[in-house]
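Support request, please re-run this one:
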Amino acid sequence: MSAQALVDAPDRTEADRKLDAGRHPAALIEFVGAKPGMRVAELMAGGGYTTELLARAVGPTGKVYGENPKVVLERFAGKPWQERLARPVNQNMVRLDQELDAQFPPEASNLDVVVSNIIYHDTPWLGVDRAKMNAAVFQALKPGGVYVVLDSSAKPGSGITDGSTLHRIDEQVVRDEVLAAGFQLQEESNAWRNPEDTRDWSSSPSAAGERRGTSDRFALKFVKPQ
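Re-run finished. Output below.
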């Protein structure tokens, strides 16, 4: 089934469909490369919008681990995440309650893909040890497995300073930190790029208003060497 056909599935919720224009879900499925039977994990799954797309892509023979740290579940994701898991289409989804820099449990090993979708910028204010987080992802992936990081662009040279205010991160920080964990950069996508974005406004869903989904976003695919 094509990525667009998965997105067009009639049993997706109306709430999810309303986010599609800014999220470009078909492009995400294609860039991630999720296929039937794959074992996938998502870092900080939140309410599970992306997790469900991945679950649909890997199908009943695959498995998707949705990781959420305690503070995220307590602040906003607890109820929608539980409701997401109860949906019949998500029977291949596994709840993984743990901190972002924790090691993956033994059952969540030999993964094909790990996805970080617009959450890397949150790691500074959450107090995440990003070196440990990326090392845990590296360990959980099988050789040749991929780590996809997509996030809203901060201005070059800004580092991690805009994480809690503008909900953005300097792309170079992500590149440097993930490469330092032993990954190699395999591919980039321009599907979420917006050169007109001034990068000086908050891309947070609650603050962006009509600009929600229009931030310039980088998409990087890293690979664990064979």
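The two ends are 28 Å apart (CA to CA). Residues 150 and 177 are 14 Å apart (CA to CA).
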